């Protein structure tokens, strides 16, 4: 019996179409990721497995009939096949859905793809409520190149629980990936390790609908405890800037990742604790952690800022008084200068967010003639956990140490401009509340 030729043609056409779409899906390595947000532009990020044409389409969720597109560019091997594109036909205070196009084909994802623009509230209404998640130390196992024995990374479901918090954005506090001996000696190795971490399946939904900002610490900068003497720091800086979508970097003009961003009435100062850091083994001469150029920039930046809360993000602990590991207490003269800069600038609402230590805790410094300074350390997300025991931190806030489980923080800023408050919730990898604190803006003046 003769087959219907039209039906055969239709089946063949559908088969070709399916194979083509499948081939394009195989070109997606990691992402897409939503980068920084402003009122007039948002950066979108993606990584392919090979050279491909990449573009994003996006639309206001309230007006889905009108689609906009970014430029179309080609991903290239010498940039780790990473592409960053700008959604610049947006309006303030809107939520947009978007889709990824690889070689002209829509690459569907099994989760929602969306981003938001920041609200134009100044002189019009009260500042918006702000919610973000934060943490440090992300190890993703790779047995072929890891140390023998039990994998150092676990609890990857933490990223699903962070997404359930419905945050506006995430701030990554360093050690966002772990370079190992096979990695840090070459661009190939550094690209490989960053790619491996970014491709974690459990991370993808969080990347796709929450805005992301980051600083680094030693493990995404170079070897353990790496300082300014690390020979490949130019390559890791290049890689950091490829894989993250901060709105600015190198604001000192001297290299490194120093930057800042504003969300609502909160400003974040993203500091670099590696590029200018003196060698740990240095016996004579001036000991530096942030360095002259970065301290000068910070002084000007926090003096200029009019934000209600001014959050200084640094990879390692600032206020812990124990001069152990890589705490700022090992650099007493520069640490005192930093604290003096904050006082002399008369900047209100300053507090620290830090990582590195593989445990969580809060330190508070009561200051004569000024307000108390808080240092919130959040660690680890998926890396190994370390119980600090009694380190001798004289500023430790009782009941805030989490040294037996992986964890993250949810931070919310709410209330009218005249009475803003910040609520900190520390949660386990499974989303269980471990402790919470409230910081009132009026108390930081």
Explained architecture:
- The structure is a single chain.
- Strands 3, 4, 5, 7, 8 and 9 form a 6-stranded antiparallel sheet that branches. A 6-stranded mixed sheet has the order 12-11-10-19-20-21. It has a 6-stranded mixed sheet with strand order 13-14-15-16-18-17, with helices on one face.
- It is 20% helix and 27% strand.
- It has helices at residues 5-25, 158-164, 187-198, 204-209, 218-221, 233-243, 292-304, 332-345; strands at 28-37, 42-48, 53-60, 68-69, 73-74, 82-87, 95-102, 105-106, 114-116, 130-135, 169-173, 211-215, 259-263, 266-270, 309-314, 350-354, 361-365, 373-377, 407-414, 421-428, 433-440.
- With 445 residues, it is an alpha+beta fold.
- It is globular, with a radius of gyration of 23 Å.
- The protein starts with a helix and ends in a 5-residue tail after the last strand.
- The longest helix has 21 residues, at 5-25.
- The protein is built from 8 helices and 21 strands.
- Strand 13 and strand 14 (266-270) form a beta hairpin.
What is the fold's blueprint, element by element?
Blueprint: H1 5-25, E1 28-37, E2 42-48, E3 53-60, E4 68-69, E5 73-74, E6 82-87, E7 95-102, E8 105-106, E9 114-116, E10 130-135, H2 158-164, E11 169-173, H3 187-198, H4 204-209, E12 211-215, H5 218-221, H6 233-243, E13 259-263, E14 266-270, H7 292-304, E15 309-314, H8 332-345, E16 350-354, E17 361-365, E18 373-377, E19 407-414, E20 421-428, E21 433-440
Parallel strand pairs: 10-11, 11-12, 14-15, 15-16, 16-18
Antiparallel strand pairs: 1-2, 2-6, 3-4, 3-5, 3-7, 7-8, 7-9, 10-19, 13-14, 17-18, 19-20, 20-21
Helix pairs in contact: 3-6, 7-8
């Amino acid at each position: 019996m003769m087959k219907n030729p039209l039906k055969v043609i239709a089946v063949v056409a559908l088969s070709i179409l399916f194979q083509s779409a499948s081939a394009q899906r195989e070109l997606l390595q990691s992402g897409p990721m939503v980068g920084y947000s402003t009122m007039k532009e948002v950066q979108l990020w993606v990584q392919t497995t090979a050279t491909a044409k990449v573009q994003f389409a996006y639309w206001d969720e309230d007006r889905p009939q009108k689609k906009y597109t970014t430029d179309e560019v080609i991903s290239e091997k010498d940039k780790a096949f990473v592409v960053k594109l700008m959604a610049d036909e947006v309006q303030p205070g809107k939520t947009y859905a978007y889709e990824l196009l690889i070689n002209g084909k829509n690459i569907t994802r099994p989760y929602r793809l969306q981003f938001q623009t920041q609200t134009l509230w100044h002189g019009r209404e009260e500042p918006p409520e702000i919610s973000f998640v934060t943490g440090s130390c992300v190890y993703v196992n790779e047995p072929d190149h890891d140390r023998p024995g039990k994998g150092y990374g676990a609890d990857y479901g933490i990223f699903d629980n962070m997404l359930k918090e419905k945050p506006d954005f995430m701030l990554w506090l360093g050690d966002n990936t772990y370079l190992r001996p096979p990695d840090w000696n070459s661009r190939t190795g550094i690209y490989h390790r960053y790619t491996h971490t970014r491709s974690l399946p459990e991370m993808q939904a969080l990347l796709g609908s929450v805005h992301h900002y980051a600083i680094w610490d030693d493990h995404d900068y170079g070897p353990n405890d790496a300082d300014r003497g690390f020979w490949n720091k130019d390559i890791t800086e290049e890689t950091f800037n490829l894989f993250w979508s901060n709105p600015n970097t190198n604001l000192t003009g001297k290299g490194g990742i120093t930057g800042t961003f504003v969300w609502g009435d909160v400003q974040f100062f993203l500091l670099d604790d590696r590029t200018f850091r003196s060698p740990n083994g240095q016996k004579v001469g001036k000991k530096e952690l942030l360095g002259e150029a970065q301290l000068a920039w910070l002084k000007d930046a926090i003096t200029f800022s009019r934000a209600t809360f001014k959050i200084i993000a640094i990879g390692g602990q600032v206020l812990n008084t124990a001069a152990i590991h890589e705490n700022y207490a090992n650099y007493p003269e520069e640490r005192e200068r930093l604290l003096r800069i904050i006082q002399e600038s008369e900047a209100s609402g300053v507090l620290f967010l830090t990582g590195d230590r593989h445990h969580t805790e809060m330190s508070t410094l009561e200051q004569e003639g000024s307000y108390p300074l808080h240092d919130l350390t959040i660690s680890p997300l998926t890396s190994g956990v370390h119980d600090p025991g009694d380190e001798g931190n004289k500023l430790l806030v009782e009941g805030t140490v989490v040294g037996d489980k992986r964890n993250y923080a949810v931070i919310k800023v709410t209330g009218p401009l005249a009475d803003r408050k910040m609520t900190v919730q520390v949660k386990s990898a499974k989303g269980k509340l471990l402790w919470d604190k409230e910081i009132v803006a009026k108390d930081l003046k």
